[in-house]
Specification:
Layout lengths: L4 H25 L7 H11 L12 H12 L2 E3 L9 E3 L2 H16 L1 H7 L6 H8 L3 H5 L1 H22 L2 H27 L11 E3 L3 H11 L1 H13 L4 H26 L2 E4 L3 E5 L5 E4 L3 E10 L5 E9 L5 E3 L6 H14 L2 E5 L5
Parallel strand pairs: 7-10
Antiparallel strand pairs: 1-2, 3-4, 4-5, 5-6, 7-8, 8-9
Helix pairs in contact: 1-2, 1-8, 2-8, 3-9, 4-9, 8-9, 10-12, 11-12
Length: 350
């Protein structure tokens, strides 16, 4: 009988990867830019898919104790003294102190001090074993520790092995410490202020994103119908088509997220498009012509793509149909007022 360890490791790793990718895209779409949030959401979501057992819940108190220890922001007044008294600081101060402490340890003068034979082993150990280093890698530490811990949890519940239950109890406190460190890291790195771009901002609508999302899932619906009617006739071919349809849907959903993350800024000097990538902009004097491509979409509405051409710069393209009707009118009116604009009607899309 084969060991369940490789299967369980792969299962938990796949859950982590899918959950992390999902929350990373979701937080990008919702503009939640706090470091560590996708990692914490992936850990909590993956924990819901591991098998449950009353015996394994005995590890919960140890997890809570470890969490409280990892969440603590108490730091020694004298970092060279292991027995120094401690004081509590805020999460932001803890993050700043951790960054400065690690920078100080990497300085050449500090390295000379650590290599000096006159430095006592207790002081050297206190400097090198400071938790600030682990704190700065809290995201990777929490993911790695959670993967190991949830794998042990799944194996212990499935097999009922007493030795695995002991290993689970022994690793509960370190798992709680890693989660506490991650939450402390999130609290210590508040959301960065948005980059200020002057002018009027045009943002995509939620309804446009939902239409695009439904349109992107249509290949999966077609593959589902194909599976219902032809699975018995050619199982391998049908499953291959299902996988290809799923990958194609995933690509279209990513494309929709990328498009609907783009904002357009209209101001007196020119136009700026800002999204997941770095902002791109053109001054009005750089743009020598504009083209509005229109295509009637039977399932949704008229698609409009505004393309701005410059003599010595990037070509900017923005799908204005993802905006409100009033904003489309205002944007196109301003562009036509400043730039020679032509319209091209493409073939309708079904």
């Amino acid at each position: 009988m084969s060991s369940p360890l490789p299967t369980t490791l792969l299962y938990v790793a796949l859950l982590f990867a899918l959950a992390f990718l999902f929350y990373l895209l979701l937080f990008k779409l919702l503009r939640i830019a706090r470091p560590g949030m996708p990692h914490l959401a992936a850990i909590l979501s993956t924990s819901l898919f591991v098998p449950l057992d009353p015996i394994a819940f005995g590890a919960v108190p140890l997890v809570l104790l470890g969490y409280l220890h990892g969440r603590s922001t108490r730091v020694p007044i004298d970092p060279t003294d292991p027995l120094s008294s401690r004081v509590s600081i805020s999460d932001e101060e803890y993050a700043l102190l951790a960054e400065r402490y690690v920078e100080a340890l990497r300085a050449p003068s500090t390295q000379q001090l650590l290599n000096s034979p006159h430095l006592g082993p207790a002081v050297r150990f206190s400097l090198l074993s400071n938790p600030f280093r682990l704190y700065l890698h809290a995201r990777a530490t929490a993911i790695a520790m959670s993967w190991i811990y949830l794998t042990i949890w799944s194996l212990a519940v499935r097999t009922g092995d007493n030795s695995l239950l002991l290993v689970l109890l022994a690793s509960s406190a370190p798992f709680g410490v890693s989660v506490g460190l991650l939450w402390k890291f999130i609290k210590g790195h508040p959301r960065q202020p948005r980059r200020l771009i002057p002018g009027r901002v045009f943002r995509p609508t939620v309804s446009s994103f939902l239409f695009s999302l439904v349109w992107g899932l249509t290949p999966a619906a077609s593959a589902g119908l194909l599976t219902c009617f032809f699975l018995d006739r050619g199982r391998t071919a049908v499953l291959t088509a299902d996988v290809l349809a799923g990958l194609y849907c995933f690509y279209r959903i990513l494309q929709s997220i990328f498009v609907h993350r783009q904002n357009l800024y209209l101001h007196a000097e020119g136009i700026v498009i800002s999204g997941l990538l770095r902002p791109l902009g053109l001054r009005w004097g750089q743009i020598h012509r504009a083209v509005l491509r229109e295509r009637h979409n039977v399932l949704s509405r008229t698609d409009r793509l505004l393309i701005l051409y410059s003599a010595s710069g990037p070509v900017l393209a923005y799908p204005v149909s993802i905006l409100r009707q009033s904003e489309q009118h205002d944007l196109l009116r301003e562009v036509r007022r400043r730039i020679p604009t032509s319209e091209v009607f493409d073939r309708p899309s079904l």
